[in-house]
Amino acid sequence: MQEFDPQVLNEKPIAPPPEFQRRARIRSLDEYGKLYERAKNDPEGFWGEQAKMLDWFEPPKKILEWDVPHAKWFIGGKLNVSYNCLDRHLATNGKKVALHWEGEDGKRVRLTYAEMHERVCRFANALLGLGVKTGDCVAVYMPMIPELPIALLACARIGAIHSVIFGGFSAIALIDRIGDAKSKILITADGGYRRGHVVPLKETADKAVESCPTIEKMIVVKRTGEEVAWTQGRDLWWHELEQKASPHCPAPSFDSEQPLYILYTSGTTGKPKGVLHTTAGYLLGAMYTTQLVFDLRDDDVYWCTADVGWVTGHSYLVYGPLANCTTCVMYEGAPDFPKKDRFWEIIERYKVSIFYSSATAVRAFMAWGNDWVTKHDLSSVRLLGTVGEPINPAAWKWYFDVVGQKRCPIVDTWWQTETGAIMISPLPGATPTKPGSATLPLPGVITRVVTMQGESVAPGETGYLIIEKPWPSMLRTIFGDDERFKRDYWSRIPGVYFTGDAAQCDADGYIWVLGRVDDVIKVAGHRLSSMEIESALVSHPSVAEAAVVARPDEIKGEAIVCFVTLRSGHSHSAALQTALIEHVAVTIGSIARPSEVRFADLLPKTRSGKIMRRLLRELAEKGGVSGDVTTLEDMGVIQKLASAKALDEE
Ligand code: PRX
């Protein structure tokens, strides 16, 4: 969690740039306020009205059934997500570009809405041909290639539930996620490109599937052309399936609450949780927020740089923009390949007007220097966005001055895998911004910053961020574990949604999200859990016990620090440190690679045996410990741990 700098509360808000404001959908704080009040006073009326932006085969009979904590939205309504993202645009916008795709190796693909529709229909038929039925789960482990959104929309078209697993995860992580959802099909590729290297996805998928008895077929996109192992009878080439399939595939109508996807995310235990999103509420949340927060226009060229392996890619690269008939840019690889101006080159080439990226990316761009940015013509850009972690005011200002050339508002969007869509964000033509604050909740979203007893805290005091009322794109449950859903989100402060974030509200009602209060770590915006990394460490034969904490990192926001005690017969060495770092990367995936492993003889524990992570956090960050250590079992431990780093460095 960030330490809050009260200085920022005194910052003067930055008004929306006048040129932007003049043409925006919502042009003043007053207008925002009216919309907000209307939604607050009559949430069902408000959401019922918004729901008209979807195409319904049968309109809903009732807007909400709320039996805390279980919500059903748009009851009795029937629709098809893929139809809403594609078919309904064809008559007027069939020739409009849906996707400008660029591979890291320079390969380019352009798909119009009509072309995308045809490819989705063919692939949906291919899935049907393999016996995939409504409610079956399809695992997706792919690079950022056009077949990825096509796969998602094809699943949605036939009512199959997709479960995307980020391409940076390991075979073990795949096994857990495929096993939990009982996926029948795995879609992957021979490989993908990252910084000029091939990421061997099929090889990892092959290893995983050895331990995944539910997988019947593996569908493989030929992306790199590298030689891959092939299991006859199980493995199928995507292009062969697509060629053989019919381009006609009707879009059946599904119930509003038909499950759309599962997306695994990290929580406080070692076991990732399968966040379940359903059809109508999720799609509405994604579509409504894309329109409002990005102030969308028909001629926008919109680029969300997130990987579809994370929720941002689901909501703001696939469902939100396509439901709005937007032209999207999608890029496969790293921002610094072949050079550090790859993103700015892409913006210039496609005349991107809306650019949505992570705070970590912004901090990296800032560290690389202005020249990479300023040598490109970025005059097409009109709006900038950020997501995933708190953005520090210095990075915010750099983004505003150098990338946006003081002409583009910045939307700092706060939300979560669980919320499905943006919850707190400026409206770019209406909300004066304060660098580092996500500002105000969107109309239809009721948030508060409270104590553990649920009482609002005074302006400037730290509390827990909660959401008071249900919203359409909220998670419905944790797949297969409704008890965990109730416990993690709805029991801490009974009856309201607990976000797991600490925040402050200032005198203007602006929300400053400070970071997680649980053991979730955000490394480069990626969500990991301390416990997941600890389980990976203790699975190594040399490790007796492990405790994992985060320390602030200038670029990545947070970095992973591991404290480890060894089993007898093993001794501290630089080689073992490296081996343990590698072991975590292999067990979970390279995104979980620790920055530091420190050896210790003992870990600080309370008398009841709980590891005191707070002390370790302080040690990792400052090298020493202050504050209350009265419940600590052995005071000497801290001393030893504090000197452990020095010993390691000798
Ligand atoms: O701590 C908050 C942080 O990211 C968490 C959610 O992570 P995840 O489910 O991976 O979703 C990330 C993309 C939506 C939150 O609990 N977070 C997200 N956006 C912001 C943020 N923290 C501060 N400011 C943000 N704009």
The CATH topology of the domain at 81-96 and 111-252? Rossmann fold
Strand content: 15-25%
3D shape: globular
CATH class of the domain at 81-96 and 111-252: Alpha Beta
Describe this structure in words.
This protein is an alpha/beta fold and 650 residues long. Among the domains are: 81-96 and 111-252, Rossmann fold (3-Layer(aba) Sandwich), CATH 3.40.50.980; 524-649, ANL, C-terminal domain (GMP Synthetase, Chain A, domain 3), CATH 3.30.300. 33% of the residues lie in helices and 23% in strands. It has 20 helices and 30 strands. The chain has an eight-stranded mixed beta sheet, sandwiched between helices. Helix 2 packs across helix 3 (43-50). The chain is globular. The protein starts with 17 loop residues before the first helix and ends with a helix.
Topology summary:
Elements: H1 18-23, H2 29-41, H3 43-50, E1 62-67, E2 70-75, E3 78-79, H4 81-93, E4 97-102, E5 108-112, H5 113-129, E6 137-140, H6 147-158, E7 161-164, H7 171-181, E8 185-189, E9 192-194, E10 197-199, H8 201-209, E11 217-221, E12 235-237, H9 238-244, E13 254-255, E14 259-265, E15 273-278, H10 280-293, E16 301-304, H11 311-323, E17 327-331, H12 342-350, E18 354-358, H13 359-368, H14 371-374, E19 383-387, H15 393-403, E20 410-413, E21 447-450, E22 462-467, E23 477-478, H16 482-490, E24 497-505, E25 511-516, E26 520-523, E27 526-529, H17 530-538, E28 543-553, E29 557-566, H18 574-587, E30 596-599, H19 613-622, H20 635-649
Parallel strand pairs: 4-17, 6-7, 6-8, 7-14, 8-11, 11-12, 16-17, 16-18, 18-19, 19-20, 29-30
Antiparallel strand pairs: 1-2, 3-13, 4-5, 9-10, 14-15, 15-23, 21-22, 22-24, 24-25, 26-27, 28-29
Bound molecules: adenosine-5'-monophosphate-propyl ester.
